[in-house]
Specification:
The chain is built from 8 helices and 10 strands. By secondary structure, it is α+β, with helices and mostly antiparallel strands. The chain has a 4-stranded antiparallel beta sheet. A 3-stranded antiparallel beta sheet has the order 1-3-2. The model has no long low-confidence stretch (mean pLDDT 84).
Length: 253
């Protein structure tokens, strides 16, 4: 188990990430040099020996290291020394293949409509499938890796920009310009509501219901008979009481 760095040592490492090589860690700065603070923490935690770094670690740097080079605005962070920061430029000769990841739940829609930016100004791509998976798994551990055919996309007027070594950007990738794993099988369609209602109306197995539409041998006790109905017929006239003569028990004779 490695020891935690001092605030000053951690500040030096973060300065390298934010002011020189964010692309080395799969990070893309915006036009003002900012990256999302949560993305920075996830990228740093992936590095060996830096899994302990949290927002509190950065707050400690800003309080205890006098010459730190960071500034935070809401949920964004950047370095104040950005003269060596990679600039976004038009990619004259991008690789033949680029890679990116999408959320697994969004994959069916992406497969049909194409790749749009998700949480960023542009689609982030990498020349390395490993880096693309690293970036994608920060938002979805089961992210789907897609392979982009660059020339096919260029033929459809897609412009690619480079944001450091191995990191590329695009406004949009049409559906015909990338490949990925097969789509998940569709779940079976549930039975229609009418069929469900019919099954619910069927009596459960082993149940018995008296059919009152036919004559029955049932005899209503006299104590529970009701008065005449609308036709003037009494319960005693409808049902005959079966009288049974009880024999006196021997001990009462």
């Amino acid at each position: 188990m490695s020891l935690q760095r001092t605030p000053k040592q951690l500040a030096k490492f973060l300065d390298y990430v934010l002011s020189r090589r964010p692309d080395e860690f799969g990070l893309v700065t915006d036009e003002n040099g900012f990256v999302k603070l949560k993305d920075l923490l996830k990228a740093v935690n992936e590095e060996e020996g830096f899994g302990y770094v949290r927002r509190a670690s950065i707050d400690e740097i800003m309080l205890s290291v006098p010459d730190h080079s960071f500034e935070i605005s809401d949920n964004l962070i950047r370095s104040t020394r950005r003269d060596q920061l990679p600039r976004h430029r038009y990619a004259d000769d991008p690789p033949k293949l680029l890679y990116t990841c999408v959320r697994r739940k969004a994959y069916p829609h992406v497969h049909e409509k194409g790749i749009l930016p998700a949480g960023y100004a542009r689609v982030i791509l990498s020349s390395s499938p490993e880096m693309a998976e690293r970036i994608g798994r920060r938002n979805d551990h089961s992210a789907v890796l897609l392979t982009v055919q660059v020339q096919t996309a260029v033929d459809q007027d897609v412009d690619f920009f480079q944001a450091g070594e191995g990191i590329f950007l695009a406004e949009f990738i049409p559906a015909q310009c990338f490949t990925g794993p097969p789509l998940p099988k569709e779940k079976p369609v549930p039975p229609k509501a009418a069929d469900q209602s019919a099954r619910q109306q069927q009596p459960p197995a082993g149940s018995y219901f008296i059919d009152m539409s036919e004559e029955s041998d049932y005899r209503v006790p006299k104590s529970k008979r009701r008065g005449p109905n609308a036709d003037g017929i009494t319960g005693g006239q409808r049902l005959k009481k079966i009288k049974r003569k009880r024999e006196r028990p021997p001990w009462r004779k």
